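Give me the fold.
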Amino acid sequence: MKLFNTPPLSQMTTQGSDLRRPDGARQDAEPAKATRAKSGARKATPAKPARLPEPPSVPRVVPIARLVQGGRWRVEAMRALSEPCLLWFTRGQGRITMGGTTRGYGPFTAVFLPAGVMHAFEIGLQTHGMAVFFGRNTDLALPHAAQHLRIRDTAAQAELTGLIDSVTRELESGRPGAERAASHYLGLLSVVIERQTAALPAEARPTPPARKLVARYSALLERDFRSGHTIADYAAQLGVTATHLTRACRANCGRAASELLQERRLYEARRLLAETRVPVKDIAETLGFASPAYFTRSFHAKIGKTPSQFRRGD
């Protein structure tokens, strides 16, 4: 059954400068914009964007359990990738949020994430599976919207698992033509995704307005989370009240609109603290906090550590 289909961020925003993580994720780094509000937004001259190292973006397969190396926040906090990704859960269960809508996943669930779609998912000790990253410059024919696919047919399950294993084997072999062979297997994998998506029954009812609203908010948030915009600012852009936006977010993903914004900003803060030596004050300014002190208070209230303690691994 098709659970949801969210619009890609690329339909709502343009790309900015690169901000990347070791697994190839990319965010559009924008200077803090001039907005002051109660939430801690600041009105200041643009900050120099904080940057992460820019590793080459190549296709790769990573066990889902390995994605949490360095902290569960790497999958459980809201963030987006710069490249398409397929999550293939073969064991365990939990919840995944994509484009502002939360649904459950279980064994043999395939989740396709286009680049730029904000998402997060729970992961437990019993969660097993593989994450396939297609690379930033892939020319494969992949869905333009997020897909949540429950693969019930055993032959289809085996086909999907076999293709992922073949990609992994070629990428790890070091043999002549291995990358080319892996790209062909990835092409076949894209065909499986297309066929599974096409086999889904048509939606019995149109997408509820609240779900569309939250999907639009998620896309705007991913584009502008560094700007210092408040929930009232986002609501105004969407043509609704802040109260209505918060109500819609709670109904679709169990989080308030402000929680989604805070999660996204603090994910980026942790990523910069963990993977760069950018000064704390510059991180605060880049992410649109009113001051380093306000950033420290907000970070400590949510994470339980100061930014400096988190960076030291205390």
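The chain has a mean pLDDT of 85.
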